[in-house]
Amino acid sequence: MKNPSNSNTDGDLRSEFRSFALSEGVSESSISNYLNRLSTLETSVFPELSLDIIVLGGRRSVVKKSSAKKSLVVSSSPKNSSFTTVDDIDAAYDVLRVRYSNMSTRRNFLTAILAFLRYTPSLRDDPRAASARARWTEFHGHARAFQESRYKQHMPSERQLEKYVGLDQIDSKYQELKGGDVTNTTLQDSLDILLLSFVLSMPPKRADMGALRIYEDTDPRLSSENYLVLRRASSASSVNATAYIVLNKYKTSASYGRVETDLPHSATADLLDSLRHWPRDYVFVTRRGHNRPFASNNAYGRWVQSVFSRLFGRATGVTMLRHIFITEKVTPGSMNDDELEDIARQMLHSTDLQRKYNWDRAKICETLSQMCEQCTGGKVRTKSMKKRKFGSVVHLPIK
Question: What are the pLDDT tens digits along the chain (399 aa)?
Fold first, then answer.
């Protein structure tokens, strides 16, 4: 049972956070991501603590499940311990550091904690808030400095290298699945092909495609959801069919507003083929039901990782796909500023982040031989990759 904190329940704090963050211009997508991470902290990392105690700190008492004795030392194996309270922010961070060795993942949790402290007025006014915020900010600064140092090296970590799947590999698998006997036989097969088609056809977005509702022919001009408009030329052929994606809910929506991205013909054809075999209202759906979208960006992101794990043996996620695309397709030395800016805007981030995401191909060429011509003995990219064109993007004024 969780220890009581103050008069506010966790549900009240979440509602307060959401309302105030929205009023301050934080995007729905960012708020959902923050709340999902905070929920993980509360249910998985510190299951015996209320949310305000986690972020503000308190008394620490660690009770091991295998023993009734209390210890004043944070266990090095938090999964095997039950935390009833936390002594201070340092102790809580020690648990996070052990639980999440990946610095990027850890920083995401720290960002969620700081956002919660900033956008929850009743916590912000708590006498413990100033010192808690200062300490969490210090840890966040350390994580950020580590990542900035990594960015400057333009080199992926060893863990990232393990998840790298080159675009040529993705294209080869796509061609294999398209030419196989199991094309669209099951919903899973159909979604596998469609996911790879989208990855190959467009500069990858973040995990904002998990609830992409399909509207036929007419754009409903909604601002409350992400969706795809599909215009069929005829029911028998996809030759003249067109489609475009509309994103309203995403991390940087406050900067870019509503974004429309044309879906290239190859991906449009694959979508129509998938819909003929598996009619549904959403582009990507869960395996639990043929017409159920993913409940959150995190759920969609986990699904993407599961697909790549099954097809390539590597848990490649949406952020990794963005790194891969920029590394293999964005060449600052041969592109002008307008071209770089256009790709950055299609990916809904800045050219500064684009530069940080661009890894030095020469440095990792020996390990990932599919990435560059000199590593493959002069072999060129596959014919289908050469022909593939990326969709255009339209940014509409923010209202």
Answer: 444 444 456 678 899 999 999 999 888 888 988 999 999 998 889 887 888 888 887 644 333 333 333 332 333 344 434 444 445 788 889 889 899 888 888 989 999 999 999 999 988 888 888 889 899 999 998 888 877 766 666 666 777 778 888 888 999 999 999 987 767 789 999 999 999 999 998 888 878 889 999 999 999 999 989 999 999 876 555 568 899 999 888 877 777 788 888 999 999 999 999 999 999 999 999 977 678 999 888 889 999 999 999 999 999 998 889 888 888 877 766 777 777 777 777 776 776 677 676 776 766 665 555 444 444 444 434 445 444 555 444 434 333
Rounded CA gap, 356 and 308, in Å?
24
Taking the C-alpha atoms of residue 310 and residue 307, their distance in angstroms, rounded to an integer, is 5
Helix axes 103-118, 28-40, angle to 10 degrees: 110
- For every residue of 337-381, DSSP letters joined together read HHHHHHHHHHTTS-HHHHHHH---HHHHTTT-GGG-GGGGTTPPP
Query: What is the token pair recorded at 273?
Result: 């083929």
Closest CA to 184 of 280, 294, 300: 280
Find out whether 274 and 243 touch, Cβ atoms under 8 Å.
no
Using an 8 Å Cβ cutoff, are 24 and 284 in contact?
no
| Buried residues in 231-250 as b, exposed as e (16+ CB within 10 A) | ebeeeeebeebebbbbbbbb
pTM of the model: 0.61
Q: Tokens for 142? A: 């350390």
The C-alpha atoms of residue 192 and residue 1 are separated, in whole angstroms, by: 42
Instruction: Tally Cβ neighbours within 10 Å of residue 6.
Output: 14
Q: What's the CATH code, domain 158-395?
A: 1.10.443.10
Summary count for the chain: helices (H), strands (E): 18, 8
- Measured from the Cβ of residue 211, the count of other Cβ atoms closer than 10 Å reads 21
Ordered by start, the domain boundaries in the chain are 10-153, 158-395
C-alpha 241 chain-centroid distance: 30
CA-based R_g, the chain, Å: 23
The CA-to-CA distance between both ends of the chain, in Å, stands at 46
| Residue 229: DSSP 8-state | E
* DSSP helix/strand/coil, 73: coil
